[in-house]
Specification:
heterodimer; A: alpha+beta; five-stranded antiparallel β-sheet; 18 helices; globular; B: alpha+beta; Uridine Diphospho-n-acetylenolpyruvylglucosamine Reductase, domain 3; 2 domains; four-stranded antiparallel β-sheet
Chain lengths: ~500, ~350
């Protein structure tokens, strides 16, 4: 039991229980346990308390009380995040938005949906389907992840290249500020007046405000979608094929790549019929009107053939399309089957450096003595290397973490970034020092303070302290980084 | 084509030490926007800070210095069959990409292609401490750190001088057709919204002078099939019409003596037909109105329509020209401003009197 908390646990619990159903003010270790981590289970911390209010007014009261007592608040949706962004603070309150799971309104003519933050991503599209509409961003966790969490992380998915990220698909959010004010940021209009605080809030990982309502844009469901599966005997050729399709003026709805390890694992897992001897596989989905899809599929097939595809298969039915995607969508569990544990990374690189980065990763794989499989949102340069390890072998997780860190630094060295869609959270806070200098990090801290002067919202996440960075950029580390940069540019 | 960073940095530091203000100026085409510039402030010019820094057509990414004119950028992109698909308004030939982002201006394709803000991947910014900072990057997906790049959209230079911008660019559509039909103003919002809800290659929906124009763009076969299905007259020179919409050059914009108001509202909202000419763009999300009025009279109308209003051109530019902000957001924006520009050097009072 923590005795150094800024406000006593008992006193806080009593205050919360005066307006929240006491059953949903959780203070006992057994019930707190499931909240100790998010989707990145390697990072754990027990919270002081979890509260599950069910009205916005109650969320506001929770924030006011925490602000008054200087108690850290970690907002939480479904807890599917992959950067330990929702990992609790040991002296803080986890503010669960799980009870806010209602779709408040769908406007089929104006093509918008008004949502509580705990609505699941997939539920939006399911509800909108009756109007021929859907919600664009589709992170792989979409069956479970919530729209509030999507806003906090600026979630993407496989359709980003054409349909954008969360930031492109929302109109407004209601937030409770750190000081307990309730405000709407954004409007029903597309471009409002003043600073674009909506952009700033999107992807801010719960550090700037607590989202209590979201208004999203809905898109008309494409008439047709078809996917081409193309195998290649080298990563380089597949990478060139991606560039060639896009240069051709075709923007695919989804454009995914898998390397040889991922192809085998996925094909073993679900029998998608992938070319097992291929070194790289592309899934290129084209959607639109019937005429458009027909025209673009024919062109894209031609491009792949010309660039040396060793096999090409185009879905002829919805069932076949689903089967071809199934392998990609189950790539993570498939890899989970060939290894006791895996660690999923999330760097983004300029696509032209793909072959170089994958090659370098293979060298690192030997250095660290760990296997790595790659799935890749090829259209927008977002890499998801899956590092395979066994947590039961002492030291393997540490090696996996070091390997992951080296991969992210390589991404920065070739002009990319340390996280494309999973966020920084606790996990990548060290690598922030590689991507940004002290002045830039200080600017982030100053922006945070503009929203949260006392620093109670999700403290310790997202942006490292400068002192921490100086330590991380120690001489030994710098040396390591330079070696990698040389390798990357060599 | 030149890198002017050192000169600009020195100018900011000098202004800071002398307690002076600076008005940021690119091509000067949007000097009429925002509140009147502080006449006592000096000028920080970006007009010479021009040129493409990096362009990889295959990546769909362009990095360019902020003072680069839009026409120059578009010429470079056109060589590779690409474009700025948010269709930035060329208020004049001198309009720059930096000013376009600072004012967050986008053209008729905005509801489909997104705005300039949506296409921004990264910026370099000279803040009020004279620090030259880099945010975002040159890749499509990047969630490291706060999205300071997109925060610049519409901030009108109050947070610092944007010196470099990385943008997503897109292929030009293979084919385009424009359909037109006569329509009364009170029918148009429902009509365009229903069209926009169909999965068809629509990229423009604008009503002006009693006619509604729809633009179809994309694969030729899809454009032709949709045009046949939807009907209406095909406009012979549709591209010219959209170009005029984009650049605010239509006859509707000719009268520069009467205040021009811009409503940014819900696309389906019903709004009272105030006396004076209207133009409805962006499926109904952007409505232009020309008439004598005060912002405090129009704000309730905008609010009832789910959005905001601003005084785009003309009228009283010593008073507020932007929709008012609730107290909590005012406080946050003041603090954000202070975090970038603690001495209030940049564009004082240009966005709001209190900023």
């Amino acid at each position: 039991m923590k005795t150094e908390a800024k406000a006593s646990k008992a006193m806080l619990a009593e205050q919360f229980r005066s307006f929240i159903d006491p059953e949903f003010v959780i203070t006992d270790d057994e019930t707190l346990k499931p909240y100790e981590c998010d989707g990145l289970a390697m990072y754990r911390e027990m919270p002081m308390m979890v509260v599950l209010p069910d009205t916005v007014a109650h969320v506001q009261r929770v924030m006011r009380i925490c602000h008054e007592h200087g108690v850290p608040v970690v907002a939480r949706g479904a807890g599917t995040g992959l950067c330990a962004g929702a990992m609790p603070h040991k002296e803080g309150v986890v503010l669960s938005l799980a009870k806010f799971n209602r779709i408040l309104e769908i406007d089929p003519v104006g093509r918008t949906a008004r949502l509580q933050p705990g609505v699941r991503n997939l539920a939006i599209s399911e509800e909108a389907a009756q109007h021929g509409l859907y919600y664009g961003p589709d992170p792989s966790s979409q069956i479970a992840c919530t729209i509030g969490g999507n806003v906090a992380e600026n979630s993407g998915g496989v359709h980003c290249l054409k349909y954008g990220l969360t930031v492109h698909n929302i109109l407004s959010v209601d937030i409770i500020t750190a000081e307990g004010d309730r405000v709407t940021v954004g409007s029903d209009g597309l471009d409002g007046c003043g600073m674009d605080l909506l952009a700033l809030l999107t992807g801010s990982e719960g550090l700037l405000g607590v989202v209590t309502e979201v208004k999203v844009k809905l898109l008309p469901k494409p008439e047709v979608a078809q996917v081409i599966m193309a195998g290649f005997d080298s990563i380089e050729k597949a990478g060139d094929a991606v560039g060639a399709v896009i240069s051709h003026g075709i923007i695919p709805g989804g454009l995914e790549m898998m390397d040889g390890h991922a192809i085998l694992a996925a094909d073993d897992f679900c029998g998608a019929g992938y070319p097992r001897d291929a070194k790289a596989l592309l899934l290129c989905e084209v959607d639109g009107t019937e005429e458009e899809v027909h025209e673009h599929i024919t062109e894209a097939e031609g491009v792949f053939r010309k660039l040396g595809a060793t096999s090409i298969r185009t879905s002829q039915s919805e069932e076949e399309r689903a089967l071809l995607w199934k392998g990609r969508k189950s790539a993570f569990p498939a890899v989970g089957r060939i290894s006791p544990d895996y660690y999923c990374m999330d760097g983004t690189i300029p696509r032209r450096h793909l072959a170089r980065v994958l090659l370098e990763m293979e060298t690192m794989s030997e250095q660290f003595g760990l296997r790595v499989a790659n799935v890749f949102h090829a259209g927008d340069g977002n890499l998801h290397p899956l590092i395979l390890f066994d947590a039961n072998v002492p030291g393997e997780f540490d090696r996996a973490e070091a390997f992951g860190s080296a991969i992210l630094e390589l991404c920065v060295a070739v002009g990319g970034c340390i996280t494309g869609e999973h966020g920084v959270g606790v996990e990548k806070i060290r690598q922030m020092a590689v991507q940004f200098n002290d002045e830039e990090l200080q600017q982030f801290h100053d922006v945070k303070a503009a929203f949260d002067p006392t620093g109670i919202l999700n403290p310790g996440k997202g942006v490292p302290t400068l002192k921490f960075c100086q330590e991380y950029r120690s001489i030994e580390h710098k040396q390591h980084k330079h070696e990698q940069a040389d390798a990357a540019h060599g | 084509m030149a890198d002017q960073i050192q000169r600009m940095q020195e100018q900011v530091l000098q202004a800071r030490s002398e307690g002076r203000k600076l008005n940021i100026l690119g091509g000067g085409s949007k000097a009429f926007m925002g509140r009147n510039a502080d006449p006592a402030a000096g000028t920080l010019s970006l007009a010479e800070h021009t040129g493409v820094v990096e362009y990889h057509p295959v990546e769909l990414v362009l990095t360019v210095r902020a003072g680069t004119p839009l026409t120059e950028i578009e010429a470079v992109l056109a060589e590779h069959g690409q474009c700025l698909h948010f269709e930035p308004p060329h208020i004049s030939e001198t309009s720059t990409i930096g000013g376009t982002l600072a004012c967050n201006l986008s053209g008729p394709s905005r509801p489909w292609a997104g705005s300039v803000r949506d296409q921004v991947l990264g910026v370099r910014l000279l803040n009020g401490k004279g620090e030259h900072l880099r945010f975002g990057g040159q890749v499509m997906k990047n969630v490291a750190g706060y999205d300071v790049s997109r925060l610049q959209a519409g901030a009108m230079g109050t947070l610092g001088a944007i010196t470099e911008i990385s943008l997503k660019v897109m292929p030009r559509p293979a084919a385009t057709t424009t359909l037109v039909r006569e329509m009364a103003m009170d029918e148009v919002v429902d009509y365009t919204n229903r069209r926009a809800a169909e999965p068809k290659p629509i990229t423009g929906a604008c009503w002006v002078d009693g006619r509604v124009y729809l633009r179809l763009a994309g694969a030729r076969s899809a454009v032709e099939a949709t045009a046949d299905k939807w009907g209406g007259d095909v406009v012979a020179d549709g591209d010219t019409f959209w170009r005029q919409v984009q650049d605010l050059q239509l006859g509707f914009f000719d009268d520069q003596n009467t205040p021009l108001w811009r409503f940014s509202v819900g696309s389906t909202a019903n709004m009272p037909a105030l006396d004076g000419p209207w133009m409805i763009d962006w499926i109904g999300s952007q409505r232009w109105y020309r008439g004598e009025a005060s912002i405090s009279d129009l704000e309730p109308l905008a609010r009832a329509a789910g959005g905001q209003v601003s005084l785009f051109r003309g009228g009283d530019r010593n008073g507020e020209v932007m929709h008012s902000q609730p107290e909590a957001l005012k406080t946050i924006q003041r603090r954000v401003k202070n975090s970038f520009d603690p001495d209030g050097i940049f564009n004082p009072g240009r966005l709001y009197s209190w900023l």
